[in-house]
Amino acid sequence: MSILVTGGAGYIGSHTVVELLNRDENIVIVDNFVNSKPEVLEKIKKITGKDFKFYEVDILDEKKLNNVFEENDIESVIHFAGLKAVGESVEKPIEYYYNNVTGTLVLLKLMRKYNCKKIVFSSSATVYGDPGTPKYIEEFGRGKTTNPYGSTKSIIEQILEDLYASDNSWNIAILRYFNPIGAHKSGLIGEEPQGIPNNLMPFIMKVANKELDHLNVFGNDYEGTKDGTGARDYLHVVDLAIGHIKALEKLNREKSGVFIYNLGTGTAYTVLEIIETFKRVNNVDVPYKIAPRRSGDLAIYYADPTKAKKELGWVCERGIEEMCRDSWNFIKSDK
Ligand code: NAD
Ligand code: WQD
C-alpha cells in the first residue's frame, strides 16, 4: 500500500516526502513541475537513501492520473499540488480556479473510483479572511477571502466538507498553514522561486545574496505590532512536514470524519524582527527601505495551535533563528 503525494516535488511536498521516507513509507509522487524541478527528486533520494515511484503527470489529466491509481495500491493521498502565488492569482483567476479546484475534483473523482477515501489537504490561514482578531482559531470557520488563490482554498475546503456530508466514509484532514519558511538541514532542498519573489523570506534571501539591491518593507505604521511592520506566524517547513505525518496518523486512528487544524507556532514576528534575526544569525547584510503598505495585507495574525497539539500531538520544535539559518544554508550550500 502506498501514499500518493501530489505536488511532491514542491517546497512543502519535498520536505514531507523526506519525512515519510524516513519513516519507511511507500510513496508515489505525482508532479507536473509547473513550479518545481526534476532535480528535487534526486535530492530527496540523496537525503533519505530511499527510492520511490514518480509520475510526471498533471492532476488535471484524468486518464494519466487514473493510470497512477491503476498501477498502485493507493491507500491515502497528501494533496499539495496547486498554484500558490497570490498576486498571479489576481491576474489569472481562470488558471488558478481551473488548476486548483478542477485539479482537486479530478483527484477526488479518482479517489472515489478506487475507494481511496483518506486525504490530507494543504489549506491556508488565508481562508479565515479577516476575522477581526489576530489569533486564529479553527472554530472561526471560513471568512471572506481577498484573492482568487485564497478562494480556491476556501472552495476546496467546502467541497471536502460536502463530499463527507454525501458519504461519511471519507476521512479528511484540512491543514491550514501559516507562513512556512526554512529548509532541510542538508541544504539540498528548500524554496526556490523563479524570478522576483513575492514572499518575505525568498525576497530577503535574494537581497542577502546581492541578486536584488534592497527589500521593500511594506508599511511601518501598522497598529498592534511591536514596531509597526506586519507580523506573521512563521513556522519551519520541517515542522510543517511533520504535521502532515501526524495528520495522517490521526486519520489512520479514525474511521472517518473531517478534521481541521491550524499549523503554526502561535507566535508572530514582525518584518523587522525577521530581517534583524536573519542578519544576526547569518552574518550578512539585508538592506531595506520602508515602502507603502501592500494592498490586502493585514497587520498581524497568528495561529492558535492548541487543537493540533491536543489532537495530533504536534508542536513546532524549530525556532525563528533555525528558520533563518536553514533558509540561508539552502541558498549558500553547494547543491
Ligand atoms: P510549490 O509550488 O513549491 O509546490 C506545489 C507543487 O505542485 C509544485 O511542485 C508544482 O509543480 C505542483 N503542481 C501544481 N499544479 C499541479 C498540477 N496541476 N499537477 C501536478 N502538479 C502540480 O508550493 P508549496 O509552497 O510547496 O505549497 C504546497 C501546497 O501548500 C499548495 O497547495 C499551496 O497552496 C499550499 N500552501 C502553501 C503555503 C506557503 O506559504 N508555501 C501556505 C499555505 C498553503
Ligand atoms: C509576510 C510579511 C508583508 C514581502 C502569503 C499568502 C498566504 C500564504 C503565505 C499560501 C507581510 C511583508 C513581504 C516583501 C514585506 N500562502 N513583506 N516585503 O502575505 O503573510 O502570506 O504567503 O497560502 O496565503 O498571502 O506572506 O511572505 O508575502 O508576507 O514587507 O517584499 O512580510 O507585508 O507583513 P503573507 P508574505
Task: Describe the model.
This protein has 335 residues and is of the alpha/beta class. 41% of the residues lie in helices and 19% in strands. It is built from eleven helices and 15 strands. The strands form five sheets. It has a seven-stranded parallel beta sheet with strand order 3-2-1-4-5-7-12, with helices on both faces. Strands 6-15 form a two-stranded parallel sheet. Helix 2 (39-48) links the parallel strand 2 (27-31) and strand 3 (53-56). Helix 3 (62-71) packs parallel to helix 5 (93-113). It is globular and about 55 Å long. Residues 7, 9-13, 30-36, 58-60, 80-84, 99, 103, 122, 124, 177, 179-180 line the site of nicotinamide-adenine-dinucleotide.
Gap from first CA to last CA = 33 Å
Major sheet strand order: 3-2-1-4-5-7-12
> If helices are DSSP runs of H or I spanning 4 or more residues, what is the number of helices?
11
The average pLDDT value, as a whole number, equals 97
Radius of gyration of CA atoms, rounded to a whole number: 19 Å
